[in-house]
Amino acid sequence: MGAGVSPAAATAPQSPEPTLALIKKRGQVLCGVNGELPGFSVVDTQGRWSGFDVDFCRSIAAATLGDASKVKFVAATATDRFDLLKSGQIDLLVRNTTITLRRSTGDTGVRYAAVTYIDGQGFVVSKRSGIKNLVQLDKARICMTRDTTYQENTLDWFAGLGLSVKLILFDRTEATFEAFVTGACEAVTQQSTGLATAIVDTGKADDYLMLPEIISKEPQGPYVRAGDDEWIDIVRWTHNARLEAEELGITSQNVESFRNTRLLAARRLLGLDTGNGQSLGLDEQWAYRIIAQVGNYGESYERYFGAESALKFSRGVNALWTRGGVLYPLPMQ
Fold it and tell me: How many whole angstroms separate alpha carbon 317 and alpha carbon 328?
């Protein structure tokens, strides 16, 4: 997904202060999220936020401020998300955002910190349409959110087969799906997990079909402002700490039982053997708080996509490397 310019974001000055110092002074992490994509980030009628991306934001707050609740969630569109980040209106962007070369090199002003979720672009149609594969969408209307990688991916795929489609673009995720379910398009496209969660959320999942073709790689993760090495390290190692905890079998439910462990990897992770916190500019309990207050990577996955969710997705490629996936925590030493 790409970025345009929002007037408010374009005129806001970027603070020269390091992000961690700003957060500590403010007492709150400003986290840019989608807010309209079930499973990743949504807010209910009582103002309560939940989702896989929301858990990551809370992990950052636990690590830096000691309290996972010290987060202000800022709804960001696909168009304004990078401007919000560059202008300092958010501290990090955790909005199901695909990592690409052109988004994280040169003078873009942003850098990705880690790959936290691996997905691919899929398509959903109404079962009543009789459409069974992508080729049958030739000349069809396809709903999608503007300023995303999905636009280029879709046009490239169909053009490669000598086919064409009409893109019907919307500024917001919610509007994209509303248009599809009301018949404005023959298909809707997005990352496949987001498609599944959004369609299940309609309460009429049996009326729709996800087509078998996945046309792209969509590795996703948090973005931060370029030039703040301390902050990118904190965000990157927050992700790795959650993976390491899962690999070691440390969860929010049993973390206290590891407080006297002799297992060296667990001692380093939990700050019992010191040094990691100091290297990141944090105290030594930073990772312990992430696990105790939010949980490890697998706990978040199961909550929003796996066994505890309506989707019941298996981990697949997002499993640990020891369990057939590709997620591989970097050494915490």
Answer: 11
The hierarchical CATH code for the domain 7-117+220-317 is 3.40.190.10
> 188: which strand partners?
124, 143
3-state secondary structure 208-263: EEECCCCCCCEEECCEEECCCHHHHHHHHHHHHHHHHHHHHCCCCCCHHHHCCCCC
pLDDT in tens, 130-177: 999 999 999 999 999 999 999 999 999 999 999 999 999 999 999 999
Domains 7-117+220-317 and 121-216 share a fold: yes
The CATH number corresponding to 121-216 among 3.40.50.10490, 3.40.190.10, 3.20.20.80, 3.30.450.20 equals 3.40.190.10
